[in-house]
Amino acid sequence: MTAIEISNVQKRYKALQALGGVSLKIEEGEFFGLLGPNGAGKTTLISIIAGLIRADAGGVKIHGHDVVSDFRAARRKLGVVPQELVFDPFFTVRETLRLQSGYFGLGNNDKWIDEVMEELGLANKADTNMRALSGGMKRRVLVAQALVHKPPVIVLDEPTAGVDVELRQTLWQFITRLNREGHTIVLTTHYLEEAQAMCKRVAMLKLGKVVALDTMSQLIRRISGSQLVLHLPHNTLPEELVPLLNHPPEDNKYSLRINDYAEVEGILARLRQGGISIDEMQLQQADLEDIFLQIMDENIV
Ligand SMILES: Nc1ncnc2c1ncn2[C@@H]1O[C@H](COP(=O)(O)OP(=O)(O)OP(=O)(O)O)[C@@H](O)[C@H]1O
């Protein structure tokens, strides 16, 4: 079954085309990453999925339910952890979660609420007022709120932005468990390491368009196996090696694509011929960050 089906979604804010025809199918049980630089349109897309704003054209279905014409059914299938913290400060944590349960018509939900609070390290704050919680604790409540109706599809918009290591670990343990139990997870994050560790498949958005869509392993394979990073503070790279660059040099560090280790010899010989001294050299496996930078630079699809 398709968990989220996004068909040619378009959204414009006056002159700005925030989403220019996005289509994606995310299957049930996937751990999917939605990546892109600031302003790429991730939050806009998530808001449309959550039924918070309307697309100008195209549509979204959650487990087959249209998010506009069949809003209630679609919303029941979906839990969204938003970026921003908005709460009623006068309720306690438990009251906040009970209210949210009530919104979904779940009267007697305390067993699950207790479990969610336990998993997210909120149990000892259950009777604390929201206004007395630290930012990190509030963020935990935001996650708990999204999960209160045990939605089969969970969307997390930058859930770990500015949170401490402990919460990050607690959150990922719980989310991984939910994914193992069959929940579909969609994640946006600026931390590419996190996406690489968690997501099996990713879409990369740029200026409101999908510029890459692949499994993590295929994407990583797309950039040849490894890269040679050379720090050349006193020279520039010889002209003939420039085509090997993964992306423009940063701080005199040149990242060269290599297909097998034998190529390293040739590169070093060429530098020696040119009398170029190497300050530092590293051989690295390509990672998501390299691919991300390359795709954002070249816009290859
Ligand atoms: N309500 C709005 N009115 C006008 N422009 C908006 C509105 N919301 C978003 N935009 C613009 O639409 C574009 C996409 O924004 P969006 O927040 O979806 O990007 P994003 O990928 O989530 O970025 P970030 O990583 O910074 O959260 C941006 O150029 C943004 O300035």
TrEMBL record:
Query: Which residue spans traverse the membrane?
Result: none
Please tell me whether the keyword Cell membrane is annotated for this protein.
Answer: yes
What would be an example GO MF term here? ATP hydrolysis activity
Instruction: Write the record's keywords in alphabetical order, separated by commas.
Output: ATP-binding, Cell membrane, Membrane, Nodulation, Nucleotide-binding, Transport
Domain named ABC transporter is located at 4-232
Q: Which residues form a coiled coil?
A: none
| Family in the record | Belongs to the ABC transporter superfamily.
Designated name of the protein: ATP-binding cassette domain-containing protein
Highest lineage ranks of the organism? Bacteria, Pseudomonadati, Pseudomonadota, Betaproteobacteria, Burkholderiales
